[in-house]
Amino acid sequence: MWKNLKKFSPSLVRLLARRSVDNSKSKVEAISNQEIAVLAQIPVDRVIEISMTSEWSSITLGEAQAFCTACSFDPFNSADRNRASAYLRSGATFAYLKKHPHWNTFFKPLIQHVQTTKGY
After folding, report:
1. I need a surface site. Which of 60, 71, 81, 92 has the fewest CB within 10 A?
2. 94 — alpha (psi -120 to 50), left (phi > 0) or beta?
3. C-alpha of 51 from chain center
4. Domain around 31
């Protein structure tokens, strides 16, 4: 069960945090750090810190659960894991992140971090 969590680093879970726009499966937008903080009841600074982490070992179980839930990702749900894995296998471009106002300041560096640390 826990090996499923290890397959998806906190950084990767953060990159996958998105929601449908207009109830469309093909149109999605990134969830902001502020929204994740509110949903997870974790300070924004801590959300950013967790997002830049490549392993779950330094994150409490409660924070990991709250963070994943706020990112709309359940590592123990096969549908969520399969959706994420299929996206990554298809050559994840994270195009929806490029439209976000924090693309240059947060998401682009986060993608580079994940690629550097072999987070996916």
Report:
1. 60
2. left
3. 7
4. 2-116
